[in-house]
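Design request, tokens follow.
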């Protein structure tokens, strides 16, 4: 029965006046607020709900003890961690996934070559194309099944962590993960739990992330040189077969694409920068080098641009930049 003021007697109305609810004009209010609003409503949250604002001294001290950090732009941070081989995947591939993908590709090529050499379906190109497409689908399904097994094995380890992790004490990983959800655990505990669960699984189910070869090549000149030499060796190996089969031009295009994958700025050398006389070309090169790895060629391009334009302010800025880099390389790093 709904309460109403008109339906109450004088005795009941007298007892209503005893009920002092400061936040509503009706004493019964809302059911929730009957239970939780046991303090006087003043229009602002109570002390135990207020955010504690730090004083200036606390903020100054917190800033003083923060270690030195060299901040990169979000673009550079994403560039370092991005997998530039799979822009449609929107995530990095883990090691076994990369291996499965490469196996799928090599098996597809080998089986398709074998089918073409046998010549069983060579009379009708449409049938031959359909059989090659069937091979592609079969290999893709096989690789996808292996990938799904890998994910499910890791989920199995996650779901059975109480049986896998070591116990025996209240502070053991087993008890920590029994009484805390994953987000409440310390990052060091989470890292150790992940390492132990990974070690419990066979190696073919491990999910370990690596930098893709383009990132490695961009960050390390020695690896970059080794990758380009490998591409040259493979090109030399197939050179005679390509010339006899009439696809030498296709081979050269494929080699150029592979070298572009490793280093699209390999033609922008110190000698080419010194010989360049066009400011627009230098500007375009600076964009390419900055997007690739932003190495010492950037300063060489700036220096050459200042020489060509004859701008003394730019030349002084480049000199200062060289000094900053020299001092930065001498300073101890964290």
């Amino acid at each position: 029965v709904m309460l109403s003021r008109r339906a109450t007697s004088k005795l009941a109305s007298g007892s209503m006046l005893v009920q002092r609810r400061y936040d509503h004009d009706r004493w019964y209010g809302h059911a929730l607020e009957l239970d939780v609003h046991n303090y006087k409503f003043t229009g602002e949250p109570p002390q135990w709900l207020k955010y504690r604002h730090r004083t200036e001294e606390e903020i100054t001290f917190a800033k003083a003890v923060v270690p030195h950090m060299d901040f990169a732009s979000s673009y550079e941070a994403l560039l370092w961690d991005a997998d530039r081989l799979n822009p449609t995947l929107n995530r990095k591939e883990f090691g076994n996934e990369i291996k499965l993908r490469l196996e799928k590709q090599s098996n597809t090529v080998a089986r398709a070559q074998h089918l073409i050499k046998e010549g069983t379906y060579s009379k009708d190109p449409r049938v031959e194309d359909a059989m090659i497409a069937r091979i592609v689908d079969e290999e893709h399904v096989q690789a996808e099944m292996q990938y799904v097994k890998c994910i499910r094995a890791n989920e199995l380890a996650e779901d059975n962590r109480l049986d896998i992790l070591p116990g025996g004490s209240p502070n053991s990983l087993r008890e920590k993960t029994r009484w805390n959800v994953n987000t409440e655990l310390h990052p060091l505990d989470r890292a150790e739990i992940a390492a132990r669960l990974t070690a419990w699984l066979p190696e073919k189910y491990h999910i370990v992330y690596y930098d893709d070869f383009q990132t490695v090549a961009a960050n390390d000149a020695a690896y970059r040189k080794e990758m380009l030499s490998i591409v040259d060796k493979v090109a030399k190996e197939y050179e005679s077969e390509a010339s006899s089969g009439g696809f030498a031009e296709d081979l050269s295009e494929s080699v150029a694409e592979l070298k572009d994958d490793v280093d699209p700025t390999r033609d922008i050398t110190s000698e080419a920068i010194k010989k360049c006389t066009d400011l627009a070309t230098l500007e375009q090169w600076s964009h390419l080098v900055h997007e690739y790895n932003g190495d010492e060629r950037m300063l060489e391009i700036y220096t050459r641009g200042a020489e060509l334009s004859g701008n003394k302010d730019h030349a002084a800025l480049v000199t200062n930049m060289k000094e900053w880099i020299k001092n930065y390389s001498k300073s101890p790093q964290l």
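Comment from the thread starter after seeing the answer: thanks! The radius of gyration is 34 Å.
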